[in-house]
## 1
Amino acid sequence: MQHSSTRLNRYRLITQAKLCWLALVLCVGGQKVRADMVSEVDVLAPAKQEVLLLITGAIKYTNQGDHSAHLDAEHLQHLPQHTIHTSTVATDGVKRFDGVLVRHVLDLVGAHGTYLEAQAHNGYTVHIPMDDFFDYEVLMATHMDGKQLELSDKGPLWIVYPRDSHRKLQDIRYDYRWVWQLKQLTVK
Ligand SMILES: Nc1nc2c(c(=O)[nH]1)N[C@H]1C(S)=C(S)[C@@H](COP(=O)(O)O)O[C@H]1N2
Ligand SMILES: [Mo]
């Protein structure tokens, strides 16, 4: 009787020790994974080329002292490239647009807000609900019909909606969100 209860206690002790060890491994391991994830995305690479887009406001990842993100062509080239064929209210016929999804740009800077204030080089400013970029494949276009967009012609960045694919987007309320000559986004 005495003997077996000692064995039982020893068994309990070993089991508890194993559980503690397991908990420690899981805890330390989990933290390590989290630390690795943060270090990978925490620091946004500095812009090495001409700055195409400035992002400020409610963003997590920045590369400027003033808590803004300056993005150049290289930042955009590292994101998945996306193509949309659509007609627009500003051009004739169906055009091919290449660029990156706005939602991927927002992910890159860790944007967390409800709308964007988009500002263009010509002073045009408009508010765009964040939901647009998750409901639709909205493009930040860099090219139209294979040609790079220039500042003199809607560039260097143009917000392009997949207008022809969605009835709802064929509306003036969306047309005014097609900001051409895009310069800055403020996440609010
Ligand atoms: N940079 C910039 N983007 C802009 C505008 C503008 O004046 N400047 N006008 C908006 C409006 S009101 C509309 S309806 C669409 C199409 O305008 P457009 O036909 O003059 O090109 O672009 C939008 N994007
Ligand atoms: Mo407009």
## 2
Amino acid sequence: MLRIALMLLAGGLALVSAQPGRENATKPHILFIVADDLGWNDVGWHNPDVKTPVLDQLAHEGVILNQSYVNYVCTPSRTAFMTGYFPYRVGSQHLVFFPQQAQAIPSNFTFLPEKLKELGYATHMVGKWHLGFCNWKYTPTYRGFDSFYGYYNADEDYYTHVVAGGLDLRDDKEVVNTKNGQYGTYFFADRMVDIIEKHPADTPLFLYLPFQNVHEPLEVPKRFENIYMNVQNENRRKLLGMVSALDEAIGNVTMAMKTAGLWDNTLVIFTTDNGGWIVASGNNYPLRGGKVTLWEGGTRGVAFVHGKMLQKTGYTNNELIHAVDWFPTILAAAGGTADDAMDGVSQLDTILSGQPSPRTEFVYNIDDVFPTKQGAIRVGDYKLIEGTAGKPDGWIHPANLTDSQLDSGDPTTGTWLFNLKDDPTEHHNLADTMPDKLKEMQAKLEQYRGSLVPAINPLPDPKSNPKNWGGAWSPGWC
Ligand SMILES: *[C@@H]1O[C@H](CO)[C@@H](O)[C@H](O)[C@H]1NC(C)=O
Ligand SMILES: *[C@@H]1O[C@H](CO)[C@@H](O)[C@H](O)[C@H]1NC(C)=O
Ligand SMILES: *[C@@H]1O[C@H](CO)[C@@H](O)[C@H](O)[C@H]1NC(C)=O
Ligand SMILES: *[C@@H]1O[C@H](CO)[C@@H](O)[C@H](O)[C@H]1NC(C)=O
Ligand SMILES: CC(=O)N[C@H]1CO[C@H](CO)[C@@H](O)[C@@H]1O
């Protein structure tokens, strides 16, 4: 697979550089936008009740990615984006990193912006990190970003920027304590625009924008909520308002790119980090389950790409892509090559011209820790889940968000085999009727399990307490 990937990668570069009529033969600017907990059924191109005009237009002008997979929760997906490795090979496969635990991506993994800097890129990040902060060496400006404006953890209040008793907002290394009462999406978008306005056009720009929206808590300025006055369920109304706030912020970012003259040479990659969190009114209908589950609703992410360098646009691409692929893909677009050992493969030709994906299989997750062992893989059209698949389970329509479906239904531990080509919504478990296929898939999962790295999951450390650090979550205790 790697050899094929390298060949495709060389082809992809030729396509980029051979494009006629380009004024600037410079490397493309790259806008890598990650939405937080944005569900399959929470974007306008899947659900006309959702108002995302900016994203809809970008998606329709570009290429909608219909089989773009992510991990089941936040830290693992961000691990995949930043390292190009499946989280189970890094040690970050077990849920998310928590503020009180000394958890981080080990230093021997090179992060994507470090590679891009070697290729001459300016690298900036605005938003959520969630890849470890207990030592400065694990934080964004020590892992390849020229600048960082955002937060280390997850789940903070959109107005106070506090999570679990500590302020979590930084400008590079400095604590920001002047934003209490201001909705995060506004000032994060302002910072994004500011970076773009100050950026020298002759330097390639890598802008990593992992947005806070639409993660819990459900908070949004009234004017966004008011777009959905027809929605009865208050939580759902707020969630949708948060989606529209995200959309407006991305509109401001794209407008700034145009004004700065960068847009025509910009490759936009948009993806969610995992499926919608049904408990907080996110929705993945008609897919099964959502965030924190290995069902398709948790792992098949909304995504698209956009840019003038795309050769074929305005269609839905059904090729198999996984979160680990963005590292080598972005690197290839920037004129570099990824490490051979990496799990990710370049999808540059897949997105540029609709070539077949070099990927035929991937690992959804392997975790031996919680609540029981879990493992899931895809090979060709088939998917195997063994152990805990996660909850909420089922096919939950937005109209049914408040009912008991949220926590009842099928058992969440078992063995499932699906043919996703025929059954993308995982209604028909083939484990009993296809015993040979099941054995083959189980053997494959065991093979993958051979490279499992133990989860980084130490007990909470009292040294982390923000009281020891002037009230903010701070590096320095591991
Ligand atoms: C980093 O070190 C760990 C532990 O030795 C190893 O499992 C992993 O493969 C290494 N990763 C890289 C990218 O070198
Ligand atoms: C987008 O820009 C407009 C015009 O500057 C501003 O009024 C609005 O608050 C911005 N929206 C977001 C979400 O930042
Ligand atoms: C809503 O839930 C009810 C009861 O569980 C079920 O009969 C109905 O089909 C569901 N509606 C949708 C649109 O899924
Ligand atoms: C997207 O994938 C689904 C299968 O999950 C398929 O039914 C649908 O036709 C695909 N969309 C397009 C436009 O190809
Ligand atoms: C990014 C970049 O190099 N932009 C340049 C593209 O070319 C025009 C004129 O050909 C310049 O004005 C831009 O600065």
